[in-house]
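Input record (Table S2, row 214):
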Amino acid sequence: MNVFEVMIMDMKYVQTTCPYCGTGCSFNLVVKDGKVVDTAPPYHRSPVNEGKVCPKGTYAHEFVNREDRLTTPLIKKDGKFVEATWEEANALIAEKFKSYTPPDECAVLSSARTSNEDNYALMKFARGALKTRHIDHCARLCHASTVAGLAASFGSGAMTNSIGDIAESKCVFIIGSNTFEQHPLIGRRVMQAKMNGAKLIYADPPFNLYRKAG
Ligand code: SF4
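Output record (iron/sulfur cluster complex):
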C-alpha cells in the first residue's frame, strides 16, 4: 500500500447541512483520521446554495475540535465542576426531571441551530418522555410577528416561495431584516434578482449592506 492509498483511506467527505443559520446550505465536512478538519463543496449542488458557502458556514466547523470545547459532562460537586461519565450525567438529569411533578412544571426550549430532525426528536422527548406540553423554539422570539403577518397576508405562516424564486423576482421588498449578513446565501439570491433588473425596496432603521449595494 502506498502513501496515497493510506491518505485516501483516512479521509472522507460527509455531506451535511450547515446549522449556522436557517438557510439550509448543503456542503461536505472533510473528515481526516476521524476528525473534522475542513469544509468542501458538495458533490451534488443543492438548489439552496448551488455549491456556495458563506464565510460563517466555511469556518463553522472549527469549533468542533477547539481545545476549549467541553467533551465530557461536568457535574457540580461542593461548588466545583468535576468531570463525570455520560452515565452519571444522564442519571442525574433523569433524577432531576423526575422531581418535577406534575411534569408540566418542566418546559423545553429548542434551538434554530439544530436540524428539523433534532427538533422533532426533542418534541417527542418533551411530550412522550417528560410528558410536558410546554415545548417551544427560539424562533418564537424572532419570528412570531412574521408568522402572524404572513398568515394574515398570504394564508400561511411559513415561507410562501422557494429560495430560488427570489432571484427571479421583479421586485423584492425587505423590511426589518439584515438578510445579507444573517442569511448570506439568501442575500445572494436578492443580489441576483437585483442584477437581473429587479427593484429592491429596503426598509430597516440600521445601516447595512443592502443600503451600501444601492
Ligand atoms: S448562509 Fe452561510 S451560515 Fe447560513 S446556512 Fe448557508 S453557509 Fe451556513
